[in-house]
Amino acid sequence: xxxxxxxxxxxxxxxxxxxxxxxxxxxxxxxxxxxxxxxxxxxxxxxxxxxxxxxxxxxxxxxxxxxxxxxxxxxxxxxxxxxxxxxxxxxxxxxxxxxxxxxxxxxxxxxxxxxxxxxxxxxxxxxxxxxxxxxxxxxxxxxxxxxxxxxxxxxxxxxxxxxxxxxxxxxxxxxxxx
Length: 178
Fold this sequence. Notes:
With about 180 residues, this protein is mainly alpha-helical. The chain is built from eight helices and no strands.
């Protein structure tokens, strides 16, 4: 019975954030994703390179909307994505005949590695998964996937977070670097 009682929760939900906090979170996310998307679709065009991956949407929630979270800090953003991308590529290369297994190994191993390196960033799990379930374009990148789109895209989003999040006097990002 105590097992199920743990699912009850231990406190109430956090208070609402201010309208200003909502606006600055929206603006940061808009600028970060639009810059990465713009560069992806205009500069890189229809070539084989890409700059945007789905997991960046979840990163935007953290680095623009939950700026004080340990999971949103630069070390976690960059390290979590890079480590997870490499693990995802390795899992695909070793286990591609069994995509279901490669996906499970990639995500589980990415979580363990991020924990071990103090770079836990939940979107990293999606980054590892994308390396496995992505199409031929993703698979064709091999380990370059960790550099481009993942590393460069995360770095662009970090620069936007550093600039946009620190504009209002009541917001500060990051909480820590290392």
